Description:
Elements: H1 12-33, H2 41-66, H3 78-96, H4 100-113, H5 120-149, H6 154-157, H7 160-217
Helix pairs in contact: 1-2, 2-7, 3-7, 4-5, 4-7, 5-7
Amino acid sequence: KHVRFMRNWAPLKYWFRMHMVCGIGGPLLILFHSTFHVGSLNATVAVCCMLLVAASGVVGRFIYRKIHHGLYGSRATLADLQKSLAAELTRIQPLLSPMPAVRQEVDGFAALATRHPAGPWGRTAHFVLLEWHRLLVRRCIHRKLARFATAGDAKAVLSTQEFARIMGTVDATLQGIQRTAQFSAYERLFALWHILHVPFVYMFVISAIVHVVAVHTY
């Protein structure tokens, strides 16, 4: 994408896919090539650099998915996520209107997710623990929804398929709330990751060249 005459060779997502396959397959082949042993200082440095690049690539893949539409999709924006979340919340209202306790849990998680704690430690803890809070809320909603489904005549109204459909919609809504709340933080993390990953790659290339030259020289 940085070289003009190469931009039309293929869609960027295919190069990205090849990048990830080579980023995993290459280190695996090198580990088998070395028979999982290193016999010299330069080989040790090269292998450590390679593992560092591969590990950072796995971390980058995780962060990448948080700020893009799927693994090979376009870059998301906070406005896109907010618009999608608003539509999801509007769609879920008729489903939860007979179940105020469930709706209260969803609203409570939305209020929790949009909090802005003071101080870096508070913001970090809020970011890290939000996934755990979402799972707790989901579990609580599942119990309340199951209780509603078996209460009085509701069992005849809320079938197994309806139960699964409502839980699927609730899951999607909770995940949308979490993703929207964490989006800006993941954008900053991705920028920091990119600053580290590229120097790691250069360091790996240099150490690999030194290793190959040293092997053939000595």
